[in-house]
Amino acid sequence: MSELKACPFCNNSTDFLIERIDLSSSVVICQGMVDEHCACLARGPIGLQDDDGEEQPGKAAAIREWNSRALPKGYALVPVDQLKKIHRDLDACQKLIWANMRGCDPAYYEDALVSLAHIEAMLAAAQEVE
User: Fold this and answer.
1) Which residues contact 52 (CB under 8 A, 6 or more apart)?
2) pLDDT at 75 over 70
3) What is the pLDDT of residues 17-37, one digit of tens each?
4) Helices marked H in 11-104 — which ranges?
5) d(Cα 19, Cα 27) in Å, to the nearest integer?
6) What is the enclosing helix (H) or strand (E) of 126?
7) Which residues contact 109 (CB under 8 A, 6 or more apart)?
8) Is the pLDDT of residue 103 over 80?
9) CA distance linking residue 86 with residue 92, whole number of Å
10) Is 123 in contact with 84 (CB distance < 8 Å)?
11) Are 61 and 55 in contact (CB under 8 A)?
């Protein structure tokens, strides 16, 4: 199944099932393990049949749809709770740096502000999805 990109939820790249839904469509289902006890079971969008010559109708479209939602190389999903904790910790560090600016490189403070702004934007985007 090397034609499928890794699952964006569990990062599995080997254990997939392509299930036929009806006479014209299929869907990719990830059977990778999130941990030792539970399967991921992420489902891709339903792929509709491309042409009448397909052995398994919709398989090529299901794979194409699955791959279009995979995370780009170098990216990772981060739980919102973890992002909130990083934001709190960084905010506390930024405030401590500001309070003790004597002898401190102002670039650290500016970098912290930029990072906080990036995290706030990610948190705002996560709230829009909910």
Assistant:
1) none
2) yes
3) 899 888 888 999 988 887 666
4) 59-68, 80-99
5) 5
6) helix 106-129
7) 94, 97, 98, 101
8) no
9) 10
10) yes
11) no
Burial class (CB in 10 A: 0-12, 13-18, 19+), 61: buried
Per the structure block, which two tokens stand in for 75?
Answer: 């990216």
Read off the pTM: 0.52
- Chain-centroid distance of CA 17 in Å reads 20
Residues 6+ apart with CB under 8 A from 29: 16, 17, 18, 19, 41, 42, 43, 44
The predicted structure's pLDDT at residue 1 = 43
- Cβ atoms of 42 and 15 closer than 8 Å: no
CA–CA distance, 32 with 14 (Å, rounded to integer)? 8
Helix H or strand E encompassing 110: helix 106-129
Residue 93, helix vs strand vs coil: helix
